[in-house]
Design goal:
Belongs to the helicase family. PriA subfamily. The protein is 29% helix and 23% strand. The protein is an alpha/beta fold. It folds into five domains: 7-114, PriA, 3(prime) DNA-binding domain (GIY-YIG endonuclease), CATH 3.40.1440.60; 145-323, Rossmann fold, CATH 3.40.50.300; 335-376 and 436-575, 3-Layer(aba) Sandwich (Rossmann fold), CATH 3.40.50; 380-434, no CATH class; 587-672, Alpha-Beta Plaits. The strands form six sheets. It has a seven-stranded parallel sheet with strand order 8-9-7-10-11-6-12, sandwiched between helices. A six-stranded parallel sheet has the order 13-23-22-14-21-20, sandwiched between helices. The chain has a five-stranded antiparallel sheet with strand order 2-1-4-3-5. The structure holds adenosine-5'-diphosphate and zinc ion (2 copies).
C-alpha cells in the first residue's frame, strides 16, 4: 500500500500577528490533491484554526518532530484564485501586515469555524438557486447627453481605466453607474461588477434600484449588518461567480470575484472607505489596485472628490468626466446663504431667519433638514458655582449629556453613569448643560413648532437593527416635516420633497489643527447641501435653500460653498498642500504606541525613531496624540514621511523587522497613509 500515499507540505497563512507562513504535513492522496487557495484546518498552539494554503511543497526545513499534520482540507470549497491571493498579498505588503491577518479576516466567519455544517448548508442552498444570466436592463430612463457620454465611456472601456466621475449632487451619477453596468453585463455574459458605497445606510436605496433594473441577474450584498449565515451565502455566490453584481461597503473590496469586469466606487471622497482599526486599509485605494491588477475599468464618483483623486485627474492619471447639472428637469442646485450669528443671535440654536425659513416650508408642505454633527443633548454639563465640568475619568474628553436616557456617556470609551443630582465637588444642585447636540435641537424644535412632525436620525436613535432604514423610509414617505441629524443624513440620500437645509454649527472645524479638516468640512457642507432641491421645483413651491449659521461669514471656505465652487477650492487646497509638502505630494505613515503612562509610549517611539538609518525619510519627533488618553491608556505617535512612496515602503519593511525584534511590552501599530494625524 505504501506507494499510494505520500506526504506533502502545506504552506499555510494563519490569522496571527506572527509574520510567517507555517508548514504542515498532509497525506496527499493522488485522487484528491489539495490546491493553493483552499482552506485547511490545522493545530496551532493549543487551538485548531483555519488557515489558507498559499503554497504546496515536497519538503520543509521544519524538523520532523516539530512538524504537525494538517487536520482537514475544505475541498468542497473551490480555491481562492491566484489573483485574489495576490490582492491579499499586496494589501499585506502595502499595509505592513502578515498575509494571514489580511486574508483570513476577509473571509466569512462561518468559513473559519471547525465544522463544515454551515458551509455545506450554504453550498446546498446555493446549488438550488438558479444563476439567471439575463443582463437585460429594464426601465432605463433616457440619459442626458453628459450622462450618456459618461456611461458610454465607462461601460465601453476596456483595460485599466480609472475614471473620476465628477458630478454635482443630484446630477444622476447613480444612473450613469447603472447604465455602465448594463453595457458590461450585456457584452460579457459572465461578467461580475463590484459596487461600493461608503455607508451601510446607503445600500437599501441602491439595492432597490439595481433589483428593479436588473431583475434577471443575481445581486449579492456584503456589509456588516448581514447575519453570518447571509454573509456566507452572499460571499459564496460571489466566489462562485453566480452573483453578477456585488454591492457592499468597504469590507466587500476583499470579496472573491472570479469574473470581475468593472468596479464602481460611489462617493469616493468619503472617509468611511478607510478602515480605522486593525488592518487600516483604504478600500478605495485597494479598489484601484485591484482594477489595475485585472486590467479593468474603475469609476470613482463624487461631487466633492478627494484631493488625492482630484490630483490624479489633474495630472492625467485618471480620466475626468463631468456632470455639471442636476439630472431632473427643473431641479437646480440650492441657493446657499450665510446667516451671521453675531447679528441674528440664535434661540434654541436657531437664528430667526432659519426659523422663518422652516416655517415657510411647513406652510407649503415641504421638508426641512437640520444638520448638526454632534449627537446627544449637550456635549458637557457644568457647575456654574465652582466650575466643575463632566470630564471622563478615563479619557481626555467629556461625558456627553444624553437627556432622554438620563445618562452621561463618554463617546470614546463608552463609560456611562446617571446624571449626578448635584455637583460632585461643591454640592450645587443646579448643573447646567453647555452647548447643544441633536437631542437638544430636537427638543427646541418641538417647542417652536408644536404641530410639526420632527424626526431625529443619529447613532443613538438608530441603535436597533433596521431602525435606520425605517427612519429613512418615514422621510421618503413624507411623514416628517423637520429632520434633524448628524452626518448619517448628509450623504447620498435622494430625499424628494426637501427644499431647506439648515447647517447649525460648522465653525469649530474651521480652526482645527488637522490639515484635512477644511477638505472634509467643505465636502460635508456640499454633500448635505446637496440633499435640498433634488426634485423639480413646483409652481408656488419654494426655491431650495441652504442656510449656514456661522460667526465667520467672511471665511473663504464658506464663500466657495455659496458659489458651489469645488474646482477652485480644491485647486487652492492642492496648491497649499504642495507648498507645505503635505499629501498627496508626500507619503506618510504613522507609528502609534499605547501605554498606561504617556512617558512609556514616548520612550518606545524615541527608541523606534533612533533604531535605524533612514536616508530619504523624515522621522518626526514623538508627540502625544491630540486625544491623549482613551480608556485609561495614553497614546503617542511618530510621523514618518517621504517624497517617494517606494522609498517609504522599503523603509517601513526594514523598520518593522527591527520593531518586531524589540519585543517591547508597549502596544504599537503602524498605519500607512493615515487620514487623521
Ligand atoms: P447623484 O448620485 O449624482 O447625487 P442621483 O443619481 O441620486 O444623483 O440622481 C438624482 C435624481 O435624478 C434621482 O431622483 C434620479 O432618479 C434622477 N435622474 C437621474 N438621471 C435622470 C435622467 N436621465 N432623467 C430623469 N431623472 C434622472
Ligand atoms: Zn460645583
Ligand atoms: Zn471615556
Amino acid at each position: 500500500m505504501q506507494g499510494l500515499f505520500h506526504h506533502c507540505i502545506l504552506q499555510i497563512a494563519l490569522d496571527t500577528p506572527l509574520n510567517a507562513i507555517f508548514d504542515y504535513r498532509w497525506h496527499c492522496d493522488a485522487a484528491e490533491q489539495p490546491q493553493v487557495g483552499q482552506l485547511a484546518l490545522v493545530p496551532f498552539g493549543r487551538r485548531e484554526v483555519m488557515g489558507l494554503i498559499v503554497g504546496i511543497a515536497a519538503e520543509t526545513d521544519v524538523p520532523v518532530d516539530k512538524l504537525k499534520d494538517a487536520l482537514a482540507v475544505r475541498s468542497q470549497l473551490g480555491p481562492l484564485s491566484a489573483q485574489w491571493l495576490a490582492l491579499a498579498g499586496f494589501a499585506a505588503d502595502y499595509y505592513q501586515r502578515p498575509l494571514g491577518e489580511v486574508a483570513l479576516p476577509g473571509l466569512p466567519k462561518n468559513l473559519r469555524v471547525l465544522t463544515t455544517v454551515a458551509l455545506d448548508r450554504a453550498l446546498k442552498k446555493l446549488a438550488k438557486l438558479d444563476a439567471p444570466h439575463d443582463g437585460t436592463p429594464l426601465n432605463m430612463p433616457a440619459l442626458n447627453p453628459s450622462q450618456q457620454e459618461a456611461a458610454d465611456a465607462i461601460g465601453g472601456a476596456t483595460g485599466f481605466k480609472p475614471t473620476l466621475l465628477y458630478g454635482v449632487t443630484g446630477s444622476g451619477k447613480t444612473e450613469v453607474y447603472l447604465q455602465s453596468c448594463a453595457q458590461v453585463l450585456e457584452r460579457e455574459p459572465d461578467a461580475q461588477i463590484l459596487i461600493l458605497v461608503p455607508e451601510i445606510n446607503l445600500t437599501p436605496q441602491l439595492e432597490g434600484n439595481i433589483r428593479a433594473r436588473f431583475p434577471g441577474v443575481m445581486l449579492a450584498t456584503l456589509h456588516s449588518s448581514l447575519s453570518e449565515g447571509e454573509r456566507m451565502l452572499h460571499w459564496l455566490a460571489a466566489h462562485q461567480g453566480k452573483a453578477r453584481i456585488v454591492l457592499g461597503t468597504r469590507l466587500a473590496i476583499l470579496a472573491s470575484l472570479p469574473n470581475l469586469k468593472l468596479i464602481v466606487i460611489d462617493e469616493e471622497h468619503d472617509p468611511s472607505y478607510k478602515q480605522q482599526e486593525g488592518l487600516r486599509y483604504s478600500a478605495r485605494d485597494l479598489a484601484v489596485w485591484r482594477a489595475w491588477q485585472l486590467g479593468i475599468p474603475i469609476v470613482l464618483g463624487s461631487a466633492t472628490p478627494s484631493l488625492e483623486s482630484w490630483h490624479h485627474a489633474q495630472s492625467g492619471r485618471y480620466r475626468k468626466l463631468e456632470l455639471r447639472e442636476r439630472a431632473v428637469k427643473n431641479a437646480v442646485l440650492p441657493q446657499v446663504k450665510l446667516l451671521d450669528m453675531e447679528r441674528d443671535k440664535p434661540k434654541d440654536g436657531l437664528t430667526s431667519q432659519l426659523i422663518a425659513a422652516i416655517r415657510q416650508r411647513m406652510e407649503r408642505g415641504e421638508q426641512s433638514l437640520l444638520f448638526l454633527n454632534r449627537r446627544g443633548y449637550a456635549p458637557v454639563i457644568c457647575c456654574e458655582s465652582c466650575g466643575w465640568i463632566s470630564e471622563c475619568t478615563r479619557c481626555t474628553s467629556f461625558m456627553v449629556l444624553h437627556r432622554p436616557e438620563h445618562r452621561l456617556r463618554c463617546h470614546h470609551c463608552s463609560l456611562e453613569m446617571r446624571i449626578p443630582r448635584h455637583c460632585p465637588t461643591c454640592g450645587n444642585v443646579d448643573l447646567q448643560p453647555l452647548g447643544r447636540g441633536t437631542q437638544r435641537v430636537e427638543e427646541g424644535l418641538q417647542m417652536l413648532f408644536p404641530e410639526a412632525r420632527v424626526l431625529r436620525i443619529d447613532a443613538d436613535s438608530t441603535r436597533k437593527k433596521g431602525s435606520a432604514q425605517e427612519a429613512f423610509d418615514t422621510v421618503h414617505r413624507g411623514e416628517v416635516d423637520i429632520l434633524i441629524g448628524t452626518q448619517m443624513v448628509a450623504k447620498g440620500h435622494d430625499f424628494k420633497n426637501l427644499t431647506l437645509v439648515g447647517i447649525l454649527n460648522p465653525d469649530t472645524a474651521l480652526f482645527s489643527q488637522d490639515y484635512r479638516a477644511s477638505e472634509r468640512l467643505f465636502a460635508q457642507l456640499m454633500q448635505v447641501a446637496g440633499r435640498a432641491g433634488r426634485a423639480a421645483q413646483t409652481e408656488g413651491g419654494s426655491v431650495s435653500e441652504v442656510l449656514i449659521q456661522t460667526r465667520y461669514p467672511q471665511h473663504p471656505l464658506y464663500g466657495a460653498v455659496v458659489n458651489h465652487d469645488y474646482d477652485h477650492f480644491a485647486s487652492a487646497l492642492l496648491e497649499e498642500r504642495e507648498q507645505a509638502a503635505l499629501p498627496p505630494y508626500l507619503y506618510q505613515a504613522l507609528l502609534r504606541a499605547e501605554a498606561p503612562e504617556l512617558a512609556t509610549a514616548i520612550e518606545f517611539l524615541t527608541i523606534a525613531r533612533d533604531c535605524v538609518e533612514h536616508p530619504g525619510i523624515t522621522i518626526n519627533d514623538p508627540i502625544p496624540m491630540s486625544m491623549t488618553r482613551v480608556h485609561n491608556v495614553d497614546r503617542a505617535q511618530l510621523l514618518v514621511e517621504s517624497a517617494s512612496r517606494p522609498m517609504l515602503q522599503a523603509f517601513l519593511r526594514e523598520w518593522l523587522l527591527t520593531l518586531r525584534e524589540m519585543k517591547s511590552r508597549v502596544k504599537w501599530s503602524l498605519e500607512v497613509d493615515p487620514l487623521d494625524i
